[in-house]
Structure formats: C-alpha cells, structure tokens
Amino acid sequence: MIAYGLPPVCHLATIADAWVEGSIILSRREPNAVKRRSRQASLHPQTSTLLSRSMDPKIYKELQAKRFAEHEAAERDRRWALIKSGLLCLMWAAIGLVCYAFAFHASDEGWGQIFKWGAYLITYGGVSWVLLRAYRQGEKRGDW
Questions:
Q1: What is each CA distance from 1 to 8, 16, 23, 38, 88, in whole angstroms?
Q2: Does the pLDDT value for residue 17 go beyond 60?
Q3: Which partner for 100 in 46, 84, 119, 129 could form a disulfide, CB atoms 3.0-4.6 Å apart?
C-alpha cells in the first residue's frame, strides 16, 4: 500500500529530505495528497541508510538530560527575574505612598502639591522603569 504517494517503508527524515530537494509538492485539489515530481527523489542514495542512522540511545538520553537541565536553569532565571521585578514594583509603590503621606501631613498647600506630584512621579516612574528593565533583560535572555 502506498500512502500519500510514498513507498510503504518510509521514515520522516526521508520525507524531509525529499521536501528539501523539492521533489514533493502538495496537491491543491487534495490537501492530504502528496505527488512526486520525479522518480529520482525515490532513488535518493541516502534513503536506505537513513533508517540505519538512528541516534545511540545512551547519547540521546545524555542530550535529553542536558537540555532538560538547561531548560530548568532558564526557567529558574526567568521566574526569579519576574519575582524580583514584582517586589521592586511594590517597593516603588511603597516609596510613593510614603511621599504621598507627607502630602497629607504638610501644613502648607504648596508643599502638599509638591509631595503629591512627587509621589506620582516616583510611583509611576519607578514602576515603569522596573517593567521596562525586566522586559529588556527578558529579551536579552531570550524569554520572549
């Protein structure tokens, strides 16, 4: 039985090689059908050796463990950066609230306005700076 226009014994790497060579095209009339442009792609010299070139299971497990450890380290760094950014946002908000408290306790209306707008500047400026810094560091690390 020939499925999708390919030989019965087929490997995904064989399909990928044929796709890269441009010997397989998808039919527009039949979305699941694959047509061959030429018979030369089926005579590809590496087709028979692709099945015998599978990765050694020991090396595969080592690579898997290494990639898992790298992923865990990257996730830990990302998580810690987000927690640190959240705590810094809370710190700037608290500093802004302290400055705003001075606005409530000021006896002069002019000083009260200065403390109030200073609190806005400190709070919104600090939080914006922290979030921008977190985004830039995430871009540098490759988080997003």
A1: 6, 21, 20, 19, 64
A2: no
A3: 119
CA–CA distance, 91 with 130 (Å, rounded to integer) = 10
Residue 87: give the domain boundaries.
57-141
Same domain assignment for residues 63 and 127? yes
pTM for the predicted model, two decimal places = 0.57
123 pLDDT exceeds 70? yes
- Please name every residue paired with 26 in a beta bridge, in sequence order, or none if there are none: 34
DSSP 8-state class, residue 53:
-
Question: What's the total number of domains in the chain?
Answer: 2
Mapping DSSP to helix (H, G, I), strand (E, B) and coil, where does residue 74 land? helix
